[in-house]
């Protein structure tokens, strides 16, 4: 008897430190792999210039976010540098059930919670080529004060210690090369899923 999860889509978690390029890589993947679905997170942080409600995030007040937690509307949530972030449950579950693959872009605490609930997920840790590159990327993005830069680098060092929980490490040296690696991982995971389905009949 074939288990239900084998008919479900793949849950792909892209994680890693702030500024490593998760957002950049996910946008590039969207162009390359339009058949993938991307989860939109809820957050209490203020929108940055150009960010749109329901596209980049669902922007919530703290009481609204806490209500989502109470009502079990989030698969995972985490507090990150003073704000709450979480993945709405229903959209992810419905997408997987419909057989489509879904990509979650989350920081490390959240990724570990997702792993507990979805142990068959594919967990990818993005690494910067060096810490200096990471610092430059965060500064180049121009969204951080000196204080929040230091916070984010401190969090990054703790996050590297969790790499052993992940299935894959991908170095984001160049965006296209990192996407090639992620695309190869997804293709290989589909082949593995096909093998499981065929071998179990
Ligand atoms: N746990 C969790 N983390 C999230 C979620 N959405 C985004 N994040 C992460 O929260 C961190 C901060 O996100 P953001 O403020 O947009 O800054 P940036 O990703 O560093 O540009 C990043 O590491 C995101 O990947 C989520 O739904 N859950
Ligand atoms: N491979 C790369 N090479 C150089 N710069 C990059 C690369 N990937 C991302 N960046 C830059 O690094 C900064 C942080 O990227 P972003 O996608 O916002 O990271 P994250 O979502 O992980 O916080 C952005 O300015 C982005 O243009």
TrEMBL record:
InterPro entries: GK/Ca_channel_bsu (IPR008145), Guanylate_kin-like_dom (IPR008144), Guanylate_kinase (IPR017665), Guanylate_kinase_CS (IPR020590), P-loop_NTPase (IPR027417)
Chain's role: Essential for recycling GMP and indirectly, cGMP.
Annotated protein name in UniProt: Guanylate kinase
Localization per record: Cytoplasm
Catalysed reaction equations from the record: GMP + ATP = GDP + ADP
UniProt entry tagged with the keyword Kinase: yes
SUPFAM superfamilies: P-loop containing nucleoside triphosphate hydrolases (SSF52540)
Residues binding ATP: 16-23
UniProt keyword terms in alphabetical order: ATP-binding, Cytoplasm, Kinase, Nucleotide-binding, Transferase
EC numbers on record: 2.7.4.8
């Amino acid at each position: 008897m074939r288990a239900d999860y084998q008919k479900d889509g793949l849950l792909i978690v892209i994680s890693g430190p702030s500024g490593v390029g998760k957002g950049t890589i996910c946008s590039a993947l969207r162009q390359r792999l339009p058949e993938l679905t991307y989860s939109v997170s809820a957050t209490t942080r203020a929108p940055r210039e150009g960010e749109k409600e329901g596209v980049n995030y669902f922007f919530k007040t703290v009481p609204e976010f806490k209500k989502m937690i109470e009502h079990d509307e989030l698969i995972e949530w985490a507090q990150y540098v003073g704000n709450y972030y979480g993945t709405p449950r229903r959209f992810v579950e419905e997408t997987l059930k419909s057989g489509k693959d879904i990509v979650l872009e989350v920081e490390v605490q959240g990724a570990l919670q997702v792993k507990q609930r979805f142990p068959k997920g594919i967990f990818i840790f993005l690494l910067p080529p060096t810490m200096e590159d990471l610092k430059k990327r965060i500064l180049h993005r121009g969204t951080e004060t000196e204080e929040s830069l230091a916070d984010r680098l401190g969090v990054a060092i703790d996050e590297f210690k969790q790499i052993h929980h992940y299935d894959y490490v991908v170095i984001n040296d160049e965006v296209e090369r990192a996407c090639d690696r992620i695309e190869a991982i997804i293709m290989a995971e589909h082949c593995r899923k096909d093998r499981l389905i065929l071998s179990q009949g």
